[in-house]
Amino acid sequence: MKSLLVLGGARSGKSRHAQGRVEALPGSLAFIATAQSFDAEMEARIQKHRADRSDRWHTIEAPFALADSIRAAATDHDAILVDCLTLWLSNCLLADHDLDTASEALQAAIAACPVPIALVANEVGLGIVPENALARRFRDEAGRLNQAVANAVEEAVFIAAGLPVTLKPARKQGRADANPAPCSMR
Known about the structure:
Helix content: 40-55%
Largest sheet: 7 strands, mixed
InterPro entries: CobU/CobP (IPR003203), P-loop_NTPase (IPR027417)
Organism: Stakelama tenebrarum
Radius of gyration: 16 Å
Mean pLDDT: 91
Binding site for GTP: 8-15, 33-35, 50-53, 61, 83
Structural class: alpha/beta
Strand order of the largest sheet: 3-2-4-5-1-6-7
Strand content: 15-25%
Catalytic activity: adenosylcob(III)inamide + ATP = adenosylcob(III)inamide phosphate + ADP + H(+); adenosylcob(III)inamide + GTP = adenosylcob(III)inamide phosphate + GDP + H(+); adenosylcob(III)inamide phosphate + GTP + H(+) = adenosylcob(III)inamide-GDP + diphosphate
Keywords: ATP-binding, Cobalamin biosynthesis, GTP-binding, Kinase, Nucleotide-binding, Nucleotidyltransferase, Transferase
CATH class: Alpha Beta
């Protein structure tokens, strides 16, 4: 595994799948957490995720500086798990960050990452159209981010009901299989 995107809905098993893939690798592991604890329920979720990880994991909190955190983690660890891109996007959107610039920096960090990296994201575009402008913008930006990251990684998997469905298979060493051209981001 060089770079992997794991997509899925809420409680689909995407984080568990990504964590298992990274834990199968040798060495020191970095968990880049994008969640922020604003209430007791979210704090309980964060603590449960931490309890599910062994002592091999070093947690790095990166609610905003994700590209920088990936670069830094790659210098001290043998593999990285980012969980999750959707929360990171939400943080950036609500803080009024330039999403195009942040996405481009993320894509560059993934491409330059010298160690295996797995990234987790929610697929939020399968439901109804949200009733308010902010929710519609979030849905649209999440779709664009997922497309961009899927294009940047070597492998992409969709998780439904705990079962992985390969969207973009990892290429075998020495094969020159071309990936399909990505859809337009805008």
